[in-house]
Amino acid sequence: MTVMKFWLRLRQNFWFIPVLFSAIALYGAYITVELDRTLTLQQKKIWFFRALLTDVDLAKIILSSLAVAIFTMITITFSSIMVVLTTYTSQYSPRTLQNFISDKITQRVLGVFVAGFIYILFILLFLNQAKPKSLLITPTFAVNVAVACLAFFVYFIHHVATWIQVNNLISQVTERTLSSIASHFETVLGKEMPPENADLSHIADLQSVVARDSGYIQYIDVAGLISIAARDDVMISMERSVGDFVTKGGQIFSYRRGSEKEIRIQEYLDLIVLGNERTTVQDIEFGLQQLVEIALRAVSPGINDPHTALNCINRIGTILTTLSGYSIVRPYHYDDNGQLRLILRFEHFSYYLYKSFYQIRHYASGDLSVMEGIITTLQMIAEAGSPDIKETIWDFSRYITDGIDPSELMDWDKYYLNKRLWNLAVTTGFESAYRPFE
Fold first, then answer.
1. Helix, strand, or coil (residue 309)
2. pLDDT, tens digit, for every residue of 339-388?
3. Per-position DSSP letters for 320-350, written without gaps between them
4. Residue 6's pLDDT is what?
5. Domain ranges, residue 418
6. CATH number reported for the structural domain that contains residue 242 in this entry
7. 279 and 425 inside one domain
8. TM spans, by residue (predicted)?
9. DSSP 136
10. pTM of the complete model
């Protein structure tokens, strides 16, 4: 199992950080117990205030109360998490659940609570071995742990109240997708054309490799594939891209030998991470899908919140503007010697543009504010994005406006909609192709 595959699986497990923190708590409890056992009473009085030393009976009362208090905070925390998960599922999108579950703050707060509870339980067990007349310092450490848990509890309540707001969720999804774009295209973009010495005459004579499991492609280790392909003198052509679902036995990539070296196919498959759900590590389309689903829920008759849909559309525009700055159709990767080693599958910018808006166009065609918002966002993309996409933006705007029924528009509707279209035509340089609603 590769490091990235192991790390992705750990990120999807809610228990990882609580277990890690619990192990640290056990070690910390052992250290404090050893301090109480090895330090003499005189040393304790020198290093600690006299008021911080407690006898066994008082220590048991304090620790029992703290254990109950921390367990109560754990219960409330779990209840808060369930409220958030229910809200995300019903109001926003089931795909946004992993945003909250994988949130570092959520996992760390829960880890602190569980670790504090285990720490105090371990100390309570130690008290059974303590002498009745001895004075202890371990309850003082336990009180400090409880105070830290209380501080994290207050912060977590604030965190939940912030996260459950739809605008903050939309912002979080956008930032995560933008981060994915930045990290993804810094590592996976190759060349637009293969090297001059690359022989593609037998590209159809590749040998197919099938997936050993079913799932979504979450991550492709491009550098790793190029490295072992150079070692084995093979050329790899990916038949699937990140975000695609592959079934067991389905074709996942093909390869062509350059020599008679032995090839261990499993090494290549280990560099392609499959999982039960999509992630935003390399899957940019998944981030766009999350925003689209939030927008669709917002324009549904049961919710009827077009302003949230417009917020999603604006954020989608931000992502597409950033995406347009990359020449994303650059699939050819080669080694240090100029030999073609890997061909990835990339979609054109128009694909992401269509995937971002076609569902919103279909389900919100009767909401003029949403349609106007899409046209305004297209102008924003054309204005701030790459000049190469202006023709694509204009062609796509006609696709959007074709879904609007002119007979249902009033004069004021036509005026402002035509104004938006004219501004888009000027921005893209297609004034001659402008056709207003009449």
1. helix
2. 888 888 878 889 999 999 999 998 988 888 999 999 999 999 998 877 88
3. HHHHHTS-----EEE-TTS-EEEE-----HH
4. 60
5. 365-438
6. 3.90.1170.30
7. no
8. 12-33, 61-88, 109-130, 136-157
9. B
10. 0.76
